[in-house]
Every structure is written in structure tokens, then in C-alpha cells.
Specification:
- InterPro entries: HotDog_dom_sf, MaoC-like_dom, NodN-like.
- It contains 6 helices and 8 strands; from the N terminus they run E-H-E-E-H-H-H-H-H-E-E-E-E-E.
């Protein structure tokens, strides 16, 4: 997939209200889950104990942390949009985030993004991007929400 290239507020404006694209699928494995558990000190057994998760868990296997699925957004976003000519970018917030479906280990996920709104705030571009993290072969997404980015162009 070729990402959309954005180099200015005017480039963003062209996509206002439109779908920006879909990333490639990304597989979530147990090693990633364990590393995330170590980094966040969240070693709940539904994430880190495959045997117990299979025998006692509601999902038949370990599941990725919800925040792990959120943390891969920058990797997937870069496959959809390449914002160039930047001084800096700031992750400004997330609105209406809902974790709708657990992501079991070895599942593949992909990001779908739509530019909900873009505004020029005296030289700073505020982009609101509707996102959904789809799980391959599942009807419900892992999460939905609106990511808010601030872009400072040269």
C-alpha cells in the first residue's frame, strides 16, 4: 500500500471527511504481549499465562492488553499517511475510545482511518482522525475512537 503524503494544511483539507486508508495486517504474538506486560507492570494472567487463559479464560487464549493494541497505532498510521515537512507532531488526545473486542494472541489487526475534521489554528493544524482497529475474520473491531493530532509544518 502506498501511504497518502501530506505536506501542508491545504493537503489535509483535500481529505476532510474522507477515508484516508487502511494499513496492512499486523500479527499480535505472545512475545509482544509479554514485553508490553513487562513495560507496563500489567502481568494479569489473561495476558501472560497461556495455559491458564486456555483453561479458565473467557477467550480461549491469552489476549493483548487494550493499550497494547492502541500503542501500535503509530506503526499502522505511518502505513496510511506520511506527514512530511514537519517541525513537530503532537499526540493531542483520544476521544470516544471504546475497546469493543478482545484481541487474542496470534490475531491479525489493521487500522482503518478517516479524516473527521481538520482545522488551522493560527499555523498549527489540528487533525481529528476516526479510527477503527479491525481484527481479521471478526465482525467487531478491537477498538474505535477519534485520534487528535497537532501538526506544526515548516
Amino acid at each position: 500500500m502506498n501511504p497518502t503524503v501530506i505536506q501542508s494544511f491545504e493537503d489535509f483539507e483535500k481529505y476532510n471527511g474522507q477515508e484516508l486508508g487502511t494499513s496492512d495486517y499486523f500479527k499480535i504474538n505472545q512475545s509482544q504481549i509479554n514485553l508490553f506486560a513487562d513495560a507496563t507492570y500489567d502481568h494479569q494472567w489473561i495476558h501472560t499465562d497461556p495455559d491458564r487463559a486456555k483453561s479458565e479464560g473467557a477467550f480461549g487464549n491469552t489476549i493483548a492488553h487494550g493499550y497494547l493494541t492502541l500503542s501500535i497505532v503509530p506503526h499502522l498510521w505511518d502505513q496510511i499517511v506520511q506527514v512530511q515537512n514537519l517541525k513537530m507532531m503532537i499526540n493531542y488526545g483520544i476521544e470516544n475510545l471504546r475497546f469493543a473486542q478482545a484481541v487474542t494472541v496470534e490475531s491479525e489487526v489493521r487500522l482503518v482511518a478517516k479524516l473527521k475534521n481538520v482545522a488551522n489554528l493560527r499555523g498549527t493544524v489540528k487533525a481529528e482522525v476516526e479510527v477503527k482497529l479491525e481484527i481479521k475474520d471478526q465482525k467487531k473491531p478491537a477498538f474505535t475512537g477519534i485520534l487528535v493530532f497537532l501538526y506544526h509544518f515548516h
